[in-house]
Amino acid sequence: MVRAGGRSARLCSIPTGLLLLLPLLPATLPVEAACGSGAVVFNFGDSNSDTGGLTAGLGIVLPQEEGRVFFRRSSGRLCDGRLVIDFLCESLNTSYLSPYMEPLGADFSNGANFAVAGSCTRPADVPFSLAVQVRQFLRFKLRSLELVAQGAEDLIDAEGFRNAIYTIDIGQNDLADAFSANLSYVQVVQRVPSVIHEIKQAIENLYDNGGKIFWVHNTGPLGCLPQKLALPRKHDSSLDPYGCLISFNNAAKEFNAQLSALCDKLNSELKNATIVYTDIYSIKYDLIANHTAYGFETALMACCGYGGPPYNFNQSIECGAFGSRVCPLGSKHISWDGVHYAEAANAIVASKILTTKYSKPNLAFDYSCTA
Questions:
Q1: What span, in angstroms and rounded, lies between the C-alpha atoms of 166 and 357?
Q2: Which residues belong to the signal peptide in this entry (predicted)?
Q3: Global pTM value
Q4: What mean pLDDT, rounded, does the chain reach?
Q5: How many whole angstroms separate alpha carbon 176 and alpha carbon 120?
Q6: 317-328, pLDDT tens digit by residue?
Q7: What are the φ/ψ torsions at residue 11 (nearest 5 degrees)?
């Protein structure tokens, strides 16, 4: 069994190994979108929004535990069920996004998902960095328009590309890799501008090729992940009142501050473009800090893993590996495997996004349908 993605192995550093919950919200989020069935979404990112790119691109078979809640089978997602991007697609009344590299059964009539677990922004020239994902999109667009011109149906036309939502959720692995390289907090933060630059390049490239509506997620509280908390530490003074690593979270906050400034800058510079910055960090940190109010039993312990309390995470026996254990169906954990959130948590995160309260400007996710 291979494990990969944002757990302990990351594509941007070349993986060496591979890497139940009942939903707290309704099976699907309320659909109030004005898009009908014509919404188009192109997604770029890492395992937080990968709907099967890792499995399609590298032939990795995920364990049967993945997807057990909703799909009842491994779905290519590093989660027990749906991801935030899945719930956002539901809110648009459109199908879940097919991975760009999926050769069989893919449906690209409503967009495509270029996200691959483990992806970083840097180095920019390695699979499947953000820059590589954008190049894959450009090829996808060129080929789609060629086929449409030849009379092909059920593909996205020029108008579809022009009115599409371009979602970006990346950066977590860049920070995690820097800490894994035993860099100091100061050294990690010094890397942030180069990561922001790659995101800037990606948005500008997509804009130059017709994109005008961008939905950008900041990164979550890295220091609250069981994977990071399970690392050896001398004492607990490095933890905040909710048990999260202060330095890791501060690095995420610095990344987010620079990403927010970038989105503000691009909004003023890119004519007729809208860049929506969404504060995922605040949503997830609130979920952890007030987990009992949301119906969760534990905030910092993985459902699937090894080692038991307090974190149930062992770098050598990750979720799906021989000897790992999965919490019973119906258990209420925020963390699925120590790195990725469980479906029940993802549902709440998505519902918060859809309120528009955490986005700047405060636009609905279906804004493109009425713009």
A1: 20
A2: 1-33
A3: 0.90
A4: 90
A5: 10
A6: 999 999 999 999
A7: -60, -35
Residue 344 has pLDDT above 80, yes or no: yes
CB 191 within 8 A of CB 197: no
Q: Half-sphere exposure of 45 toward its Cβ, with a 13 Å CA cutoff?
A: 28
pLDDT at position 119 is 97
Cα(229)–Cα(334) distance, integer angstroms: 15
> pLDDT tens, 22-69?
233 444 444 444 565 689 999 999 999 999 999 999 999 898 889 999
Q: Looking at 8, 47, 119, 351, which residue is catalytic?
A: 47
What gap in Å lies between CA 44 and CA 41, rounded to an integer?
A: 10
Give the Cα separation of 241 and 83 in Å (integer): 28
Whole-number Å distance between alpha carbons of 252 and 122: 16
Tens digits of residue pLDDT in 203-222: 999 999 999 999 999 999 99
Query: Which one is catalytic: 340, 351, 359, 366?
Result: 340
Tokens 């944002």, residue located: 6
> What single letter denotes the amino acid at residue 198?
E
Spatial distance between the Cα atoms of 276 and 278, rounded to a whole number of angstroms: 6
Report DSSP state, residue 106: -
- The pLDDT > 90 percentage for the chain reads 83
Identify whether 47 is a catalytic site residue.
Answer: yes
Check residue 341 and report its DSSP letter.
B
Query: In residues, how long is the chain?
Result: 371
pLDDT value of position 204: 98
Catalytic residue list contains 236: no
Half-sphere exposure of 1 (CA within 13 A, CB side): 17
Mean pLDDT of 336-355: 97
Active-site annotation holder among 337, 351, 359, 366:
337
How do strand 111-113 and strand 41-45 relate by DSSP bridges? parallel
Alpha-carbon radius of gyration of the chain: 19
Answer yes or no: are the C-beta atoms of 242 and 289 closer than 8 Å. Answer: yes
Strands 165-169 and 325-326: unpaired
